[in-house]
Design brief:
The chain is about 85% helix and about 0% strand. It contains 5 helices and no strands. The radius of gyration is 18 Å and the shape is globular. It comes from Thioclava marina. Keywords: Membrane, Transmembrane, Transmembrane helix. This is Transmembrane protein.
């Protein structure tokens, strides 16, 4: 049992690494595209894409390590742990961003108005729910895709 836990730890770290890299890298790539082309192709999906891709790649990683599709209980356990990592990583990245760009602190302080804070909290609740569901769906999707590819590979020889 311990060995499986160690292998899952690697999958969680894979998720966290991809999530952080994409959370930082995707906006930078989009800014570069805008600087070169003059077109702003960013959208609200930028906040969801890192979790989607990280979960998908983690599902692939699960199948590569265990050579099977995760059971439902394993997929849900992954989702809860990955979601916790997502929340903590987002808080740490936000704090770091505010330290690097202190001018933004005054804008964030402006959100402390109760009306604005309530709207922001409601929006964040919806985004977090979408991220949770997205993580669950894309972990399973990545695992099933990799498992089918592995099965086709075995059939070929």
């Amino acid at each position: 049992m311990r060995r499986g836990g160690d292998r899952m730890r690697a999958i969680y770290l894979t998720y966290l690494a991809w999530f952080i890299a994409l959370t930082i890298g995707l906006p930078l790539v989009l800014m570069a595209v805008e600087a070169v082309t003059g077109f702003d192709i960013s959208s609200s999906a930028v906040s969801i894409i890192p979790a989607m891709i990280a979960a998908h790649l983690s599902g692939i990683s699960f199948v590569k390590r265990f050579e099977r599709v995760p059971e439902k209980s394993e997929s849900w356990r992954f989702t809860f742990v990955a979601f916790g990592l997502l929340v903590v990583a987002t808080l740490v990245l936000t704090a770091g961003f505010l330290m690097v760009f202190p001018d933004l602190q005054s804008e964030v302080a402006g959100m402390m108005d109760p009306g604005v804070l309530a709207i922001f909290a409601a929006m964040m609740a919806v985004i977090l729910l979408v991220l949770f569901v997205t993580t669950r769906i894309f972990f399973g999707l990545g695992a099933r895709t990799q498992f089918k590819a592995l099965a086709r590979q075995r059939e070929k020889g």
